Amino acid sequence: MRLPSVFAAALLVAGCSSAQPGLGPEINVPAQLSTIQDAVDVAKEGATIVVSPGVYEESVQVRTKGLTIRGARRGSVIIDGETERANGIVVAAADVSVQNLTVRNHTSDGVLISEQRGFRVSYVTASNNAQFGVHALNSQNGVIEQSYASGSAGSGFSVSRCKPCDVVVRGNVAERNAVGYQGTNASGRMFVLGNRFSGNRVGMTSAAERQEDVVLVGNLVSDNDETLSPAQADGAFGLGMSLLASTKNLVSRNLITGNPGTGLALSRGQDPAPADLAGNVIVGNGQDVRYDDAGPRKKVRAPRGIPFNQVAAPPLQPEMPSDPLPDRAPDVEKYALPSEDLFDDRAAVRA
Q1: Could you state, in chain order, the average pLDDT of each consecutive group of 10 residues for the chain (351 residues)?
Q2: How far apart are CA 226 and CA 31, in angstroms?
Q3: Which stretches are tagged as biased composition: Pro residues (predicted)?
Q4: Which residues does residue 102 pair with via DSSP β-bridges, in sequence order?
Q5: What is the pTM for the complete model shown?
Q6: Cβ neighbours for 186, distance < 8 A, ≥ 6 positions apart
């Protein structure tokens, strides 16, 4: 017997509503919806998606503004690319936060912020991703903080193609990457503060056609000669910090030590003084400071390296506290010269 059309439509609506009952401003995965992507797809602006421990074999695309994706336990909420999927989380909406989880084994990036404003990445572990651990691409007004990256064949943390950036990279640990931190054409209120870039092939680089208003303060950049890291950046193996085509920047209160190649490599750019270097300690490197026109540089033979997915698993990382996260604004003055044991408790590679 054929059902009346009105009655059939009513059944259809009832069936749809019962499939997603009572979803509010907080959505729990997998208790309410089985995948993170399912939760993201139905979440309204401003919602929080809380993810319980488990391995989630998916690539998450975020297109709704104002969402927060938060893991219940950082080390056991894992978005695993299985070396098959390109990215763990792609943020394609404004004012999105990614917190307290792990992204691993992707053929491109762990977390990719793509052409957005107002992003925040906090207490994220990004390991064994083929390009970048956390990458902010053509994005502005964001924070990358208290996170960890290893096994990246590009760089652990990357900010690229923004001017002005209004981006703060603070309190992170990068080790066993080709490069710890990479800033590429990233100028204008670009802050890299109080990070540990140690035990990579290259510690950190910042370069642009003309780079201005970049602040690199309070970072530990040490012992960047790690052989058990992805086999890229071979030409600069053993380099601590590189600042190229750069003027009117602040490079201060950094400890740059134990890098067997060059501690700090500078391009003179178009001005006589490429950077303000007051207050740094640059000692114990193969060559402490070098300008690009200062004659032959000290070269270090680069070992072959290993595939990104064979880099050792990260050590246990701290959970995000229940207290509110600090203000997004940088407080440059609070970052003092670090000691060599900065964030030792979060690192596997020791000085």
Answers
A1: 39 39 86 98 97 98 98 98 98 98 98 97 98 98 98 97 96 98 95 98 88 92 95 79 81 96 79 65 94 67 90 97 94 96 95 70
A2: 42
A3: 315-324
A4: 78, 125
A5: 0.91
A6: 159, 160, 161, 162, 163, 165, 167, 206, 208, 211, 214
